[in-house]
Design goal:
2 copies of one chain form a homodimer.
Chain A lengths: L10 H13 L4 E8 L9 E2 L3 H10 L4 H9 L5 H8 L6 E4 L5 E2 L6 E6 H6 L1 H25 L3 E4 L7 H15 L3 E2 L2 H7 L9 H6 L3 H10 L5 E4 L5 H18 L5 E6 L4 H14 L6 E4 L5 H9 L6 E4 L1 H4 L9 E8 L2 E2 L14 E7 L5 E8 L7 E2 L2 E5 L2 E2 L6 H13 L17 E3 L1 H12 L3
Parallel strand pairs in A: 6-7, 6-11, 8-9, 9-10, 10-11, 15-19
Antiparallel strand pairs in A: 1-5, 1-12, 2-4, 3-5, 3-17, 12-13, 14-15, 14-16, 17-18
């Protein structure tokens, strides 16, 4: 699970690196990572994955097995492979703090290093930051919809392989989730673990009643019973009866919640809440799951449906409505000179840039300005130096702190952007006059 | 990158396992993995990931660090943790061969083991097989659209973290891709590597012409030049001029292809082909990339646009239009008795099942029948035993062989299902009368 898998890169990164090596092109290059445009179903994005990106850069080495494999391809000179053997990332990184909401055309991370080094980092840096940004954004939307209800990540099984399951839990927590069912994410990131039971447990028993009793008996800290295997309302009554039985017996074993995973959730929750309340089990919470996303959360919450917690799986872990962002890592400056790609529809803003965020009297976000890093603009500069000469400048922040920052910053977004539906206006981003002038000047130069 | 990450599971798998352990419930359980219904944008699916699923099961162990972490949660008894310490998967697995096209409600993999073991495998088995099935299916659609053109996976940067990038390359190859840009996938799976150059290489140079010359000089086996950084047609002429220059000089250095990554690809390809042909460079191939999917491939191919190879990134590696499948791993039999979940919209076909595939005179697929494994039905049985007593029965098949099988079987699908648009009829799947009778009988029993 080490982050430094040095050959997780695109072949062209190595062929370009070899060319730079042979040509002696080793001037400093600045690459910036940004999103070209937002998906229609996103009004803002949440930056995430920075900690892993820095860990990757700091640990990037090419070992003997990797060098041997590259040699076997017959594409690389022994001098270049020898250079790779001693490779260390020696550059600097500027980035927005994890959890920062951002918009299209805003650089969220900048790598400055000899061009060979900066180019070798391209694909994996994108791979790391893109995924967690996709998930943190989706999670933030769920959190906006859920209000004060609990949100739990249930998505490991449908996440795109192992790492996605693990880092989805981390990114979801940053975006506002409260816990995860993924045990390894609890171990690695200290995220609260949450779990109930599967239908198979009920089905493996002779009776649902027996299954509930057995499960509660082996779960000392308060069980959550799954009640939709056969007949949800009957199962709710069984859960209530068992809760009374356990109370009478005393001890820590108790029924903490019931989970409903299918059917008309609003109707089922109301019926189950009614049954539990009538049977004097007001303390038993209701957890819902089963194909939920931010829109179904919003519908349940706005309908005042009695739900205490949402388990969100597939829609979160693959960000089903926007599984990818148009995120790029582009050369903006080389050897002290601003650079610009002009490909149709993919033109970039040249030069080393900064994002200045202006706020209102309540700290609410009013507008951002993308400007040259050398400009002096009103507002706070969002990109800060986090790595120098290949070393992180500070230990990783506690995840709780990143999450709290994210919740505060998302809350500070303009009201219109916090709605789930597409915002009517433009994103609150301006391009500075100096930056526009630089782009025009570069376009006028011949190539 | 080891597959056995034992804590990549859902907490409830462990809590249920503890309950089974304490209750002494250790009868054999059969869980089947299947897709409840196909996404609207898929007419068939391609099974993939079996090799990794078996490797996972064979290697699953809980080490001291994992046990210590679980102990720290205060949810598990020391007897149960001691049991986990000695855990080995001892069950059997039946599965369809990787590369098999399949439909909704067809089990593609069955795990039979003491229920604790089979339950512990749930999430990770799903996580492995789900992802590669998603990607192999998407790749097969691209291959149907591309005909005899080359397909290369360019998607690492937008794949969902590291494992997804790696296994997307494998699954795409199974589905019909020819190569990948992801170097680690070349190393791990022997997939042909393919790569060109990035815009940054051009931009870092004083001139595009200089960049082309430098790149070709350091690329002994034939370079692919990216020609859309500034002005595509002008760059095509530069590429042709350089090709002539290199030919005159002799040696292995040459221009193999040009790549176009933006703009109106059909128009650009026609213009570039015209330029190259007119300049006597008919041997220089055209590679296109940039937001392509099976639909844009089909449009270019059906328009007879001169394209030799497609680089497919995001749409492939996240399967953008269908990033997840409604795939489940459900208990179908325990202690010799068939089981059935009846949750609304999620009812399962009970019992241990087999899929029988009937073919026409040209081996074309006519229909499938989902039946009880004990039934005798016409056609070939698709599920075969691949693991017994926790050991694989055969070494993994060469990936080339899986790919060839997949291409043959996809080709054998009914014509209607091979179209990219939604097929008008139902999937060619029948549920056997005996299976329907069993489900009705179980429903009639009280719980």
């Amino acid at each position: 699970m080490s982050l430094a898998r040095p050959l997780l890169l695109d072949l062209y990164q190595l062929t370009m690196a070899q060319a730079y090596f042979e040509l002696g092109m080793d001037d400093l290059a600045s690459f910036e990572l940004f999103v070209r445009s937002l998906p229609r179903v996103r009004n803002f994005l949440v930056a995430a994955g920075l900690a892993q990106a820095l860990e990757y850069l700091e640990g990037l080495r090419f070992g003997p097995e990797e060098i041997d494999y590259l040699a076997s391809l017959g594409k690389f000179s022994s001098a270049f492979l020898e250079h790779l053997r001693g490779f260390r990332f020696s550059g600097s990184v500027h980035a927005m703090p994890e959890g920062t909401p951002f918009f299209a055309q805003e650089p969220i991370l900048r790598v400055t290093a000899p061009i060979l080094e900066a180019q070798l980092a391209e694909s994996r840096i994108l791979n790391i930051v893109h995924f967690q940004t996709v998930i943190a954004t989706k999670a933030a939307r769920c959190a906006l919809a859920a209000g004060d209800r609990q949100l739990v990540d249930f998505g490991l099984r449908r996440a795109h392989e192992a790492d996605a399951g693990l880092y989805a839990a981390r990114a979801a927590f940053i975006g506002g989730f409260h816990g995860t069912a993924t045990v390894e994410a609890g171990r690695r990131f200290g995220i609260a673990l949450s779990g109930t039971m599967a239908h198979s447990f009920i089905e493996a028993h002779q009776s649902e009643e027996g299954a509930f009793r057995d499960f509660a008996a082996s779960y000392p800290s308060g069980a959550t019973l799954l009640i939709d295997t056969y007949d949800t309302e009957r199962a709710a009554r069984r859960a209530a009866a068992l809760a009374h039985e356990l109370r009478k017996r005393g001890g820590s074993h108790q029924i903490r919640a019931v989970r409903i995973d299918s059917g008309d959730l609003a109707k089922a929750c109301r019926a189950v809440r009614g049954i539990l309340d009538a049977l004097n089990c007001r303390d038993i919470e209701i957890v819902v799951s089963g194909g939920l996303d931010e829109h179904s959360i919003e519908a349940l919450v706005s309908g005042a449906v009695p739900v205490d917690a949402f388990g969100i799986g597939t829609a979160l872990d693959v960000s089903a409505d926007a599984p990818a962002l148009d995120m790029a890592y582009k050369l903006e400056e080389y050897a002290g000179k601003a650079r610009r790609k002009r490909s149709p529809g993919k033109a970039t803003w040249p030069g080393v840039k900064q994002v200045f965020r202006e706020r209102g009297p309540e700290r609410e976000i009013v507008r951002d300005r993308v400007a040259l890093a050398t400009e002096v603009c009103p507002g706070e500069a969002l990109l800060a130096e986090v790595m120098l000469e290949g070393r992180r400048l500070a230990p990783p922040l506690p995840l709780e702190q990143i999450r709290a920052y994210c919740l505060r910053e998302v809350c500070a977004l303009p009201r219109e952007l916090k709605k789930l539906e597409q915002a009517s206006g433009a994103e609150p981003v301006q391009i500075s006059a100096a930056l526009q002038a630089l782009a025009a000047r570069l376009d006028a130069e011949t190539n």
